[in-house]
Amino acid sequence: MLKILCQEETYVYNAYHMGKAFYPSEPVEASAEEKASHYVVLYLPSGKTLALDEEPGEKEERSIRKRRMDRKLYQALARETGRSLAWGILTGVRPTKIAMGKREEGMEEEAFLTWFEETYLISPRKARLAYEIAGREQALLERLDYQDGYSLYVGIPFCPSVCTYCSFSSGSLEQWGGYVEPYLAALYKELEWISRACREKKLNTIYFGGGTPTSLDAGQLDRLLGWVDELFSREHLLEYTVEAGRPDSIDREKLKVLRSHEVTRISINPQSMQQRTLDLIGRRHSVEEVLSAFQMAREEGFDNINMDLIAGLPGEKTGDMKDTLEKIRALDPDSLTVHSLAVKRAARMGQEGYIPGGEEIGDMLDLAAETAREMGMSPYYLYRQKNIAGNFENTGYAKVDKAGIYNILIMEEKQSIIAAGAGASTKIVLKEPVPSPEGRGKKTNLIRQENVKAIDAYVRRVDEMIERKGEWL
Length: 473
Description:
Elements: E1 2-6, H1 12-22, E2 28-32, E3 40-43, E4 49-52, H2 62-81, H3 95-104, H4 109-120, H5 124-141, E5 149-156, E6 158-159, E7 171-172, H6 173-176, H7 180-197, E8 202-210, H8 218-231, E9 239-245, H9 252-260, E10 265-268, H10 275-280, H11 287-299, E11 305-311, H12 318-331, E12 335-340, H13 348-351, H14 358-374, E13 378-383, E14 394-398, H15 405-412, E15 416-420, E16 425-435, E17 443-450, H16 455-470
Parallel strand pairs: 1-2, 5-8, 5-15, 6-7, 8-9, 9-10, 10-11, 11-12
Antiparallel strand pairs: 1-3, 3-4, 12-14, 13-14, 16-17
Helix pairs in contact: 1-2, 3-5, 4-5, 7-8, 7-16, 8-9, 12-14
């Protein structure tokens, strides 16, 4: 076990996540004690104790002091374990947001790489990747209207079954099927309100996520997309995505429904093309169903199909990822999103204590990047998650003109995303900063509004979800 004691409560978060990154298979406990003899004390699994302190005269503002301590903690743990972390001391989920900011300030590439590597102890390869992706994001985002534009997210929290790694607010149709119609009624109410509140704004992207939107039957899906057609103008729409997601939720009738409503982009997500893995993680579909669903989508005219894969699933080795990538290459999708497994306590896999191996995941991610390049794809967005295996990242690759604009927006937070549905998160970008809800004299131009996650609670409390948004829209 790794135990961490900090003098400041505000440093516990950083200390915990860095400790967990270096000791992924160990339980980690972090807490604060004002009277602790040192700023940070580490009680290591080896039985050794390490004490870290501020240097005399270090009285900078808190953020600078915390970064200095991050560096000291990182260097101590690196010496102790003989390991390094690809993203250094960064614990945040958006490395490209830092790169984007520096590009907008006019910082040239080589200056940025030197600064990024030295400031955050990031590997040269990851620093260059962040800068490269930020450039592609800039080019895509230039097409958007930040001031008067917005994006719409619609959450469908139903799935054929719940995967063991999943911690999203979704439920199996077997358990929650009786709530589909009440849920759609509540969702229509929220969508109708959003359409009125945003009637003077320009809708740039629509994204249906979940859950699995195609868990709805064809009639329900047609009705829901019809409401969106009725309520929202397409005059300024650049992208319309529906996560078809689970191959076992896709049939030709549903694909025809999506086409009839002019959906421009879909995802068909196998996560792995190894049948034993699919069975183990609760996907309940076959590799053959992935191939069939993809072929049907092409036959129905979809020319922008994304596929998701996960590196680090139980039992998988680099050879399994290589075989999966070869099967994906044969299908020739238009974009590919490669996730590093993030095992969260809310997921069944997390409760069972599964810890993926970091080095092998690194090899899998390198192999995926190489295969994506060979398929004519370039990396266009990147994000990280808490508890991500090996302290790595999730990267989206796309062919020319096939990048997902919404994916960039959700990371860079430059345009408001108004979200409807259970567990949906609205991000409102304000023209002028306002006092932060966190207090302490801070100001922010980004307001987050979270809908309740439970399906039944959302149905009961949809009016409250609308009222929350009404404070800002």
